[in-house]
């Protein structure tokens, strides 16, 4: 399916193994981590994520 210039593929995503920058647990993320930037497991990401602001 295509929307504008973006294409959405329903195939499996390539996962990359990481070690959480916060707790050190092994995890997988759906993007290639950038060297020098922290990467978090799901639980630690929730702690570091900025609070959502309501649109209304």
Short description:
The chain has 56 residues and is of the alpha+beta class. It is built from 1 helix and 4 strands; from the N terminus they run ββββα.
Fold and architecture overview:
The chain is an alpha+beta fold. The chain has a domain at 11-48. The chain is built from 1 helix and 4 strands; from the N terminus they run E-E-E-E-H. It has one helix at residues 42-48, and strands at 2-3, 6-7, 16-19, 26-29. A two-stranded antiparallel ribbon has the order 1-2. It has a two-stranded antiparallel sheet with strand order 3-4. A hairpin with a 2-residue loop joins strand 1 (2-3) and strand 2 (6-7). It is extended and about 35 Å long. The model has no long low-confidence stretch (mean pLDDT 85).
Please describe the structure with a list of short key phrases separated by commas or semicolons.
extended, two-stranded antiparallel ribbon, 56 residues, alpha+beta
Outline the low-pLDDT stretches.
Answer: none
Adjacency order of strands in the biggest sheet? 1-2
Q: How many separate helices?
A: 1
Mean pLDDT over the full residue set: 85
SSE topology sketch:
Blueprint: E1 2-3, E2 6-7, E3 16-19, E4 26-29, H1 42-48
